[in-house]
Design goal:
There is one protein chain. The chain is 38% helix and 16% strand. The chain is built from 13 helices and 16 strands. Strand 4 and strand 5 form a beta hairpin. The longest helix has 18 residues. The protein binds pyridoxal-5'-phosphate. Pyridoxal-5'-phosphate binds next to helix 4 and helix 5.
């Protein structure tokens, strides 16, 4: 354990050029102060103002998505994206157990059921071979939908989560989704700046979402965005996130119980300054990744997690896999690293083990179980790439 701690801590210090290092802190190198001041001066700090539209336009340009709808956070974005697909109460949604709790929360907020599937040991996203075998075994086609033979419920959609910026083989997933009549909602919360065969994360399914929480590649303070190429879905979402208010210069008429999820202008102002610097930030992050790759090249039991085939990852959080690490060894190691002010984290506790999700359906989760104890994320703040 001591030698493992030594190896990892020395590597982090060499990469970051620091004796203490944050996991992922934002970096403000553009017009943040200027836009924020201007926004405050305008008094439009809430859900109307020029920056919202500008931010959406900039994200559309960068991602190539036809529509981009800015909202209050990534979880709300996912909830709205799922809503827009036509999800019904008690539909089952296939989702990896190895993801942030927000992914499954969004499903529950729609009145639907998370159905947990296994992850791939290399890409960290859904294991597509296991998914196909599993669907063959448990699904039943009836009309234009599939149903779970065991529960009788409709299986309506799949949420590929691009973990730490790594995108799975979306072409293969699309084939499976077509065969089993599943909608695809991409959880690209962590993946701004990641591409699969030239296509940006979140633009390959029916809808996708990105988070702009302060720990992501760029931030709006709190925020998220929904990406879609469907004008119909975009229109539906814009209505849902603005309290279903019918357009009128001064009357308050609403035709649905809906949400107030629009991104405030003041957050969008910050976002505009941030997205203008995305290529520089990604360049800084690339430098860090290259250094970590070098550091861990020759260790037999410590494997640096590289981007999967076809994916150009943003390497949001650089990650290592320590072979055969047990939970107690992992926790000892993480304690030591954090006590030394090196912010390293385990991957999320698998969602099917959390008390509120225990009762929901799941496939065999052998890969996820192994990844849960073996994965460790490393300090990846872009500022370390700036200085080195
Ligand atoms: C995979 C994943 N999904 C969803 C979310 C939710 O985003 P937010 O924190 O903006 O609600 C996050 C962000 O932390 C995430 O990492």
């Amino acid at each position: 354990m001591n030698s493992l701690f030594k190896k990892i801590s020395i590597a982090i210090k060499r990469v970051t050029n620091k004796n203490s290092a944050t996991l992922h802190a934002p970096i403000f190198i553009g017009k943040e102060n200027f836009y924020l001041k201007e926004c405050i001066k305008s008094t439009f700090v809430s859900t109307s103002g020029k920056y919202i539209n500008q931010f959406e336009k900039k994200i559309k340009k960068f991602t190539g998505s036809k529509h981009a709808i800015a909202v209050v956070n990534g979880t709300a974005a996912l909830q709205m994206a799922l809503r827009a697909t036509g999800i019904k109460t008690n539909d089952e949604i296939l989702v990896p157990s190895l993801t942030f709790v927000g992914t499954a929360n969004a499903i529950k907020h729609c009145g639907a059921i998370p159905h947990f599937v296994d992850s791939d040991k290399e890409s960290l996203g859904i294991c597509l071979n296991n998914l196909e075998t599993y669907l063959k075994k448990i699904s039943l086609k009836r009309g234009s939908h599939i149903f779970n033979k065991n529960t009788g419920r409709r299986i309506f959609a799949v949420i590929p989560v691009h973990v730490y910026g790594h995108i799975i083989d979306m072409n293969k997933l699309k084939k499976i989704a077509k065969k089993y009549k599943l909608k695809i909602v991409e959880d690209a919360a962590e993946s701004l700046g990641s591409f699969f065969l030239g296509k940006h994360a979140g633009t390959m399914g029916n809808l996708g979402i990105i988070s702009f929480n302060a720990n992501k590649v760029i931030t709006t303070g709190g925020g998220g965005i929904i990406l879609t190429n469907s004008s119909l879905l975009a229109k539906r979402i814009r209505h849902l996130i603005s309290t279903a208010k019918l357009s009128h210069p001064w009357k308050f008429i609403h035709n649905k119980v809906a949400w107030n999820y629009r991104m405030p202008n003041i957050n969008a102002a910050l976002g505009c300054a941030q997205i203008e610097k995305i290529n520089t930030i990604l360049k800084y992050k690339k430098k860090i990744t290259k250094k970590y790759q070098k550091e861990f090249k020759f260790y037999e039991n410590v494997i640096f997690v590289n981007q999967p085939k076809g994916c150009k990852s943003n390497y949001w959080l650089n990650t290592i896999k320590v072979k055969n690490l047990t939970f107690s060894q992992r926790d000892k190691l993480l304690n030591k690293l954090n006590e030394s002010y090196l912010e390293c984290r385990p991957v999320w506790k698998l969602l099917h083990k959390l008390s509120m999700f225990k009762k929901y359906p799941k496939s065999k989760l052998n890969n996820s179980e192994k990844l849960e104890s073996e994965l460790i994320t490393l300090p990846s703040s872009p500022v370390y790439g700036k200085k080195n």
